[in-house]
């Protein structure tokens, strides 16, 4: 019976050339070894398999292998087959030196208190694996095909139920688009705003005086102008909103200052959006993590037709999942899908697993567990600083995974230098301030401390390093 080439074992791409099959095959193998394409220790196909693949006689392959064994390029041992000899490692032939590529996370501070990342060691691996097993067992076959660009219907339905129950969001699964995190979602919305502005000029998005630099950079890289709103003791003031196409806010827990947008100001934002047709972009990055206050509902619940709600699993689970969602006004879905390229950019297995994690209650359990852990850390931070750095005021701690340490005037730069000396990763408050915001001369000095970031075993040493840096 003739055996198909597909069942004969290891594949090997070779293109014998030149006079004579044996010499051409030997030269091709030798070049593959010398160039490093076949690494030391690589097992080669049997002579019968390679002969069948190349359509030549088995003896020709056996002779070529024997020649290269004699030269020391290959080794042949009974029971282990023919392999590339260990001493045949290629010699680097790069004509010039390239600057090494920096890999994020490969090297960093000894103690990391930068904000924006949860305790990654707390990722619920066992519960996630159980959810994945259940989800994949129950998944229909079409889940592994080219999916709906909005995302898997199971995840959109689960997110809609969860957001309605926990965040007060008016969520129709048909108006939810799954994305690879808030940054991806913001990029899609930015693309929509740019397309809408067209030839009429650059779109303008109002942003908060204090916020994430990458938000501004993402908007401006897409050709969108950012205009900072005034910031006072009550937080972001929307009274200055005028002809902007959109406004980007963190109303539930202002990042990084930590306040909550007051009911009057929330109403003012909604009034502006309805009066002008503007779009509100609500970044609800850590709405589940409240410590000392009752839950504050999402702004989207006040105006589902004018607010695009951005959410993510990055804080409750881990940013490495790259799973987030947009809850969109009815007229915005098609435009976002066009910006997305009508493709589902998130893997179906992870979407199905997160859907199972949400519907089974595992997500709620993880949030409650981490909320308690983060609150204990926050309380320890506040108590330690009151004892060892009484000149430092701690703010923005009613919710979330970070705190703002307000420093004596003029000390922020000195504290950052001391932190670098002690191997402590922290961010100065000035780093989060919009460069075009008014009142820079009177801006407070401070640090933004991500107390949720370190694993439990590193928390005490990070806290001690912080105390050594403070005035």
UniProtKB/TrEMBL annotation:
The lineage of its organism: Bacteria, Bacillati, Actinomycetota, Actinomycetes, Kitasatosporales. It comes from Streptomyces griseus. PANTHER family: HTH-TYPE TRANSCRIPTIONAL REGULATORY PROTEIN GABR. Residues 19-87 form the HTH gntR-type domain. This is GntR-family regulator. Keywords: DNA-binding, Pyridoxal phosphate, Transcription, Transcription regulation. InterPro entries: Aminotransferase_I/II_large (IPR004839), HTH_trans_reg/aminotransferase (IPR051446), PyrdxlP-dep_Trfase (IPR015424), PyrdxlP-dep_Trfase_major (IPR015421), Tscrpt_reg_HTH_GntR (IPR000524), WH-like_DNA-bd_sf (IPR036388), WH_DNA-bd_sf (IPR036390). One of its GO terms (molecular function) is pyridoxal phosphate binding. Residues 79-117 are annotated as: Disordered. Pfam families: Aminotran_1_2 (PF00155), GntR (PF00392). The keyword Cytoplasm does not apply. In the C-terminal section; belongs to the class-I pyridoxal-phosphate-dependent aminotransferase family. It comes from the Bacteria.
